[in-house]
Amino acid sequence: MMVPRPVSAVFRTQAVGLLTLLLAFTITINQTAAQRRSTRLHANPANTIEAAALEFALNAEEVTQLIGKTADITASNGKEEQGVEITRFLTGRDKSQIKSIEVKAPNATRSKRLLVTRLDEMKIDDKLYQFQYLPSVKAAMLEDLSKKNAAISEKLKASNEEFWEEIPEEEQLKYVNEYKEFLDKVGKHYASFNMKLYETRYFLFYTDMPANQVAPYLVQLDKMNELLGQSFGFKPGHNIWRGKAVIVAFIAKQAFLEFEQQFYNRTETGNAIGLCHSHGDGKVIVSCYRGNDPNFFGAVLVHETAHGYIHRYKSTVNIPTWINEGIADWIAMMVVPSSREVRFRQVEAANRLKQVQTFGGQFFNNERLDSWQYGSASAIIQLMLKASPEQFKLFFNGIKEGLTWQDSLQRAYGLTVDQLSQAYGRTIGIPALTP
């Protein structure tokens, strides 16, 4: 939930922007134990990323057994080679480390060589494999996604969680129609508001705002969808939503409050300008009101919708509040740079922490954050992303796959919570910041 910044918070220009948040330190495999206790985020992902890729990778014998099989191969740019015969793997000394593949299309007279640096996935029979490129050996391993997903599924079941199911196109259309029926009820309730529906590829935007004010918000939502997709590793055009995400946006606060009471039986919204309703069945409905600051509203709209995206990503596992709010504020800052709210919060957080030198044992565990703590959350997420997008993806996926966020942090970045706090602390002049 995003609420207005307290009036007392004053923005002061400091070196807390992107450059000071960019922390890129390399850690090698042969470090001493003392070096491993370093609190610096390391941007070189080779150790942690490659270690994770090896967990479900095929060995040399398993790779060799794929020769002669018929495969569908998808390149990183989306281009497909369908129904081709694998004739040869070109490898290094380790036959599981693939540099290129030779394939022959049906009725072709000669084989075609495919470089693994340009490949994404390969399907053989009912099994799916992913090409995991390892920069340290300049070759790729074949990760058995079917085996990996089965193992993760079992882990999720142990905590009553599960993967979100892939939704066929015809079912997606069914859900969209259901949402339109719901919005029709909303429109009847607000009969005098002359509400209108604007539909994009991923969103149903229902509002009483004048038509000439709507377009910028639709652009921001689509950009949010694109940037989060890139951050989480989706191909362009991927639809994460159950049908589409629903946005109900009012001009006035009173209409927003009435919507919450009428359709969600909610009478207490605090200072919220927007709320994301993430349902257990995967449905996402965001309600909000514009107020008098269109830039701040744009940031709120992106922030709240990002919560829905996080909810729909991969599995039903809930994300800890500081990560959830941090990602939502970070993407709002990226998509709506005209709103200075997130940067105000980051500076305010730094100023507060300089006074006490500690998070006080609450920040990383709280289910709700104080307004200023959003600044620390977004700054830490920004720091982790700048250090290494690939390591952040591993970190976030680990949580959604059933790891605690602390274990996932250790796996992806090699850091403890204390070390993460100190890494952030150094960017704001508090090298001994404690959690």
UniProtKB/TrEMBL annotation:
What protein am I looking at?
Answer: DUF1570 domain-containing protein
Give the source species: Gimesia algae
